[in-house]
């Protein structure tokens, strides 16, 4: 398939892996920020191709994983109102709140619809004027422009029965939070390519300088990630710490200015709580005063209930790259995608689920070493 | 930020109500079977856990199966719910190595359904039955209040005569066997989703719904040592292989690049955030055959236009038991798990 197969070619992958092996002399730990990248790494088995000196740890860039529990509880409280049509991206539906997931309340009769775009939710609001249509605005800078656009259009057209439940988070403050942790062992970052298509990489330059870490803006296909690793390792071995762009086919230094303007017009920066990490100052978005009428939290005045916590789940350590999922005693036993103890086991972008779904053969005792047999 | 606050709450697993995923053919479906149905109805034919039951009556070996069809939309590119209702049950019989003979049909109709729609569905059932060489010999009709059904639900049951000389099923699968798929995967699921999501492609994707007895008969008549057959419906190839690997207590290794998926289907799956290995097919099956018969199996299958894209995708191994692994296009290896819950598109 054009535009995909080029980035999944095994000969090119082997060549990049050789080049990484040739460059690397010392052990380095790199964090890929985005859950989509984690998904690709584990799904394509990229760790098999990398030399043992390179350790990849998986960052907090899974929007489903870091959306705080209280907000899911609020979403569920909103769906209990009979006038509501609650719209969400697919994988948010399965994340458990403190008692239930959205899929479960859907099964119990709530009107919950899976949509591919907030503009589809806005369309539902137009065609159902007697209902309240609420969109769960989850995600990083990548999904922010479309969500801003939906609110901006709703305001312009006077669609009063549309609102969004905002759970937007921002990447750079999370990277700084991870770097400022005394336990941090990250030597370099593969920055989230799609976030940078919107935001560009200017905002990463001060981070790279302040903490002296290489940051490579990286795409999502297997070859993108291998090339990102190669560029980061080359910087580390050469003693450099710069922002570089691997994802040249999609990202410009300044990003997408019209999209940034739309975000800035509708949203403002606010403190946000990250599930598994805690509150990070100036790490999220909320609707500006002018658009506050479209804020579902304000419109439905739902109260948050404090959440129970598991002493067993090490999601916080996993999201900061301090532990690998299989280092958790509950991994694959008490905690599986069917019975998750924490959010990273829920979404396929979550590091724990990715390891469970795709990497289990590496960690299941002596039977696990596969005979490299006839299928190759 | 000073101290990182580690909070991760304990969610409660959904185990007290039926979720849509209980019907998805993945892990939750298997839980329903294991925890509710098997304990209640335990008997030898059921415990074989195959697509249909193999029964012996007066020295005659029969296969018996049933399936219900609830697809939306009722009419989609390449077929209707009626085609699925006939072919699905015919194929479950074929997967037992049985020549399909007789079908029953139960219709649950929703008040207000246009008779024209029903005529279209019934006409497609007639045509599919003729193509598969089966007769619809008994039936039933119920009508439910408007809003209590989705137009038409159909249940069919089928009886066939087992023509395979040896038992076909997971119990016969062993290390060294070869895994073959009968054609390109994912077209049915993508045809349905493209209608639901309003997607249009340069070349429209049509459902692959088709009866599969003929290619199976060709394998049996050709003397192929067939160990297991499975049609790749709900949950797709990944779930089918996992079920067989678990039941047979063997491992399986497949290669992603060897699995035939048409370009337009791969493209649609990329757009929708789905994995074609989990997407439903209605006219495709996996054959697990003795290693020495692999080439001959491919020859026999490819002689049938329905199976022109048949491909060898992997092998059965001794370990790790119950686990399917896949070599990715770039050369890494990972687990190919059974579908967990519904396949939900990712956010970004």
Question: Secondary structure elements and their pairing?
Answer:
The complex is a heterodimer of chains A (376) and B (348).
Chain A: H1 10-23, E1 28-34, H2 35-43, E2 54-61, H3 63-66, H4 69-79, E3 84-88, H5 102-107, E4 112-114, H6 118-127, E5 132-139, H7 144-157, E6 162-168, H8 171-180, E7 188-192, H9 193-199, H10 205-211, E8 215-218, H11 222-237, E9 243-245, H12 257-266, E10 267-274, E11 278-287, H13 296-300, H14 315-319, H15 351-358
Parallel strand pairs in A: 1-2, 1-7, 3-4, 3-5, 5-6, 7-8, 8-9
Antiparallel strand pairs in A: 10-11
Chain B: H1 27-41, H2 44-47, E1 53-57, E2 60-69, E3 75-76, E4 79-80, H3 81-94, E5 98-110, H4 115-132, E6 135-144, E7 152-162, E8 178-181, H5 187-196, H6 213-221, E9 226-231, H7 236-248, E10 251-255, H8 263-272, E11 285-289, H9 294-302, E12 311-317, E13 324-327, E14 333-335
Parallel strand pairs in B: 5-6, 10-13
Antiparallel strand pairs in B: 1-2, 2-7, 3-4, 5-7, 8-11, 8-12, 9-11, 10-12, 13-14
Helix pairs in contact in B: 3-4
């Amino acid at each position: 398939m054009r535009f995909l197969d080029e980035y999944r070619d095994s000969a090119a992958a082997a060549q990049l892996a050789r080049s990484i092996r040739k460059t690397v002399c010392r052990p380095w730990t790199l964090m890929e920020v985005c859950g989509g990248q984690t998904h690709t790494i584990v799904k394509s088995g990229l760790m098999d191709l990398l030399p043992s000196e390179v350790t990849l740890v998986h960052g907090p860039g899974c929007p489903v994983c870091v959306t705080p529990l209280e907000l899911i509880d609020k979403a569920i409280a909103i769906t209990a109102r009979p006038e509501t049509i609650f719209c969400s991206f697919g994988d948010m539906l399965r994340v458990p709140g403190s008692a239930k997931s959205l899929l479960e309340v859907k099964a119990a009769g709530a009107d919950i619809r899976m949509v591919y775009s907030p503009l589809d939710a806005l369309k539902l609001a137009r065609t159902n004027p007697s209902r309240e249509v609420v969109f769960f605005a989850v995600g990083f800078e990548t999904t922010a422009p479309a969500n801003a656009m939906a609110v901006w259009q709703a305001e312009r057209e006077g669609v009063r029965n549309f609102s969004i439940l905002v759970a937007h988070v921002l990447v750079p403050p999370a990277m700084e939070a991870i770097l400022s942790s005394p336990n941090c062992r990250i030597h370099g970052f593969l920055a989230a390519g799609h976030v940078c298509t919107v935001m560009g990489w200017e905002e990463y330059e001060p981070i790279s300088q302040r903490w002296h870490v290489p940051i490579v803006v990286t795409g999502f296909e297997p070859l993108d990630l291998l090339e990102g690793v190669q560029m980061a390792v080359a910087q580390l071995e050469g003693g450099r710490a710069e922002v570089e762009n691997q994802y040249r086919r999609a990202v410009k230094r300044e990003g997408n200015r019209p999209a940034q303007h739309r975000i800035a017009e509708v949203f403002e920066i606010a403190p946000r709580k990250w599930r598994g990490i805690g509150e990070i100052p100036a790490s999220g978005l909320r609707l500006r005063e002018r658009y506050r009428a479209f804020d579902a939290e304000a419109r439905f005045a739902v109260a948050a209930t404090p959440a129970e916590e598991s002493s067993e789940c090490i999601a916080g350590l996993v999201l900061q790259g301090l532990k690998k999922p299989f280092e958790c005693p509950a991994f694959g036993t008490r905690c599986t995608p069917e019975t998750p103890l924490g959010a990273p086991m829920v979404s396929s972008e979550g590091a724990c689920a990715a390891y469970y779904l795709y990497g289990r053969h590496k960690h299941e005792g002596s039977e696990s070493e596969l005979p490299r047999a006839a299928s190759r | 930020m000073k101290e990182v606050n580690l909070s991760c709450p304990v969610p409660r697993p959904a185990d007290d109500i039926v979720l849509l995923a209980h019907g998805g053919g993945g892990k939750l479906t298997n839980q329903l079977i294991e925890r509710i149905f098997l304990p209640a109805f335990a008997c030898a034919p059921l415990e074989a856990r195959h697509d249909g039951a193999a029964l012996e009556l007066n020295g005659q070996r029969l296969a018996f199966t049933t399936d219900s069809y609830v697809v939306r939309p009722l009419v989609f590119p390449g077929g209707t719910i009626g085609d699925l209702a006939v072919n699905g049950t015919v194929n479950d019989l074929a997967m037992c190595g049985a020549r399909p003979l007789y079908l029953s049909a139960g219709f649950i109709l929703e008040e207000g359904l246009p008779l024209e729609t029903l005529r279209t569905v019934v006409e497609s059932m007639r045509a599919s039955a003729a193509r598969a060489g089966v007769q619809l010999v008994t039936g039933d009709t119920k009508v439910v209040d408007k809003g209590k059904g989705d137009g038409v639900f159909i249940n069919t049951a089928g009886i066939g005569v087992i023509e395979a000389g040896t038992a076909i099923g997971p119990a016969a699968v062993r290390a060294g066997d070869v895994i073959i798929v009968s054609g390109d995967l994912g077209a049915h699921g993508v045809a349905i989703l493209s209608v639901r999501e309003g997607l249009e492609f340069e070349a429209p994707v049509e459902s692959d719904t088709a009866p599969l007895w003929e290619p199976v008969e060709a394998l049996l008549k050709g003397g192929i040592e067939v160990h297991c057959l499975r049609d790749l419906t709900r949950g797709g190839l990944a779930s089918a292989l996992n079920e067989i690997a678990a039941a047979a207590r063997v491992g399986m290794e497949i290669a992603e690049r060897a699995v035939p998926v048409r370009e337009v289907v791969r493209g649609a799956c990329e757009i929708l955030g789905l994995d074609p290995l989990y997407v439903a097919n209605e006219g495709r099956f996996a054959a697990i055959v003795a290693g020495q018969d692999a080439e001959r199996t491919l020859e026999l299958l490819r002689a049938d236009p329905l199976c022109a894209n048949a491909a060898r995708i992997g092998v059965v191994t001794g370990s790790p038991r119950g686990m399917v692994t896949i070599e990715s296009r770039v050369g890494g290896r990972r687990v190919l798990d059974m579908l967990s819950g519904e396949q939900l598109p990712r956010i970004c």
